Amino acid sequence: MAASAAGGKLGAPKGWGKPVKALLLAAALVAALVVCAAFDTDAGLGTWLRLRGLLRESQARNAELGNEILALEVEAQALERDGFAVERAIREELGFARADETLVRLPRDDHSSARFP
């Protein structure tokens, strides 16, 4: 009943109108900026998602290349230790055969090393 005696207004005390309006205006401005950023084709959410996907693909490719490097290092160590492995690799690469052997080349379907099956 005190509100009806004071003039019938309910709500915030006097002087709070301007800060509340400024706060609402700031919130609306932030919301508008978020919406613009989400739909901006040059620097928005779509670009961020695309770049995140590219990053994942790059990381997966880096992991594959790391595994390939490890396999090549193992192969290089085998070639350094074993003279026969060096000879075999050279002969296979150049397509040569010894006098006492017959060279047979079969097409490969898998992606294993051409030198070491």
Main traits of this protein?
117 residues; mainly alpha; 4 helices
Question: In words, what does this structure look like?
Answer:
There is one protein chain. The chain has 117 residues and is mainly α. It has a domain at 18-94. The chain is 65% helix and 0% strand. Helix 3 (45-81) packs across helix 4 (83-94). The longest helix has 37 residues, at 45-81. The chain is rod-shaped and about 105 Å long. It starts with a helix and ends in a 23-residue tail after the last helix.
Set out the fold topology.
Elements: H1 2-5, H2 17-39, H3 45-81, H4 83-94
Helix pairs in contact: 3-4
Summarize the structure.
This protein has helices at 2-5, 17-39, 45-81, 83-94. It is mostly helical and 117 residues long.
Distance between the termini: 94 Å
Query: Any low-confidence stretches, pLDDT <50, length ≥5?
Result: none
Determine the mean pLDDT: 78
Strands, total number: 0
- Derived structural class: mainly alpha
Total number of helices? 4
Along the chain, the helix and strand elements come as HHHH
How helical, in percent, are the residues?
55-70%
Major beta sheet, specifics?
Answer: none
